[in-house]
Amino acid sequence: MSRVDLRGIQGVLFDLGGTLDSDGEHWLNRFYLLYQKHLPQVDFLSLKSAFYEAEAACLQEPGVAALDLAGLIDFHVSRQFQALGINSPQASAALADGFLESCRRCLRRNAGLLARLSKRLRLGVVTNFYGNAARLLTGEGLGEFFTVIVDSVVAGVRKPDPAIFLAALRELKLPPTRAAYVGDSYGQDIRPAKQVGLITVWLRNDAMSAPLPPDFDPTSADFQIRSLMDLEGLFL
Predict the structure, then answer these.
(1) Residue 18: what pLDDT?
(2) How far from each other are the two terminal CA atoms of the chain, in whole angstroms?
């Protein structure tokens, strides 16, 4: 059990993808489960290549910043299919709809938790996203709970750069020792947040998250949880 004292915590920062929209499940792994159902002929390595081509397209296409969650997922899947050389509107719609529903299921569940947390703490988001994080969260009914939303495209800096965490802390008007960071990625979330001085809460799902780096240090995580709902016992 962690000996970190949470009584002085005044703010909590969250990652978005894999944290607010799932219980520690990386987008790539979640998509692969859907491909196994709808297009089982697509192997993981082929999907991985297509997934990161779609990620690059999301960052390069200016119009993505204006997309809501449904539009973003449609765009991402269309670019995956383009990279894979697949032309199947039916399969594309099935994949996009399945992914959207899984995201919304977690977002709806987490809305109640965020509402309760926001009554006691200053909340924020720090995310490597596509310029539309604030629009997406507002559209899904979660925007009102956050004092600050730092999107890497808007901020011009990406995790694991400490500057993106420090930018959020300035907006919250809190020192790192008075705030916690909750994320699902050890390399992008937990290690850099710990280096900044934040209390770290790792939403850990080993079966569905990115591989751990060779220099993995478990002490970087002050707390480990399996579901965002476990924050009830930490902060409420």
Answers:
(1) 95
(2) 18
| All structural domains of the chain with their residue ranges | 11-25+108-235, 27-104
> What's the pTM value of the predicted model, to 2 decimals?
0.94
Give pLDDT < 50 ranges for the chain: none
Contacts 24+ apart (CB under 8 A), 100-109: 100/69, 100/70, 100/73, 102/21, 102/22, 102/30, 103/21, 103/22, 103/69, 103/73, 104/69, 104/140, 106/20, 106/21, 106/22, 106/23, 106/228, 107/20, 107/21, 107/140, 107/141, 107/142, 109/229
For residue range 104-116, what is the model confidence (pLDDT) as tens digits?
A: 999 999 999 999 9
Enumerate the β-bridge partners of residue 202.
Answer: 183, 224
Q: State residue 236's pLDDT score.
A: 82
Q: Residue 217's pLDDT is what?
A: 82
Top-level class of domain 11-25+108-235: alpha beta
Rounded CA-CA distance 225/26 in Å is 16
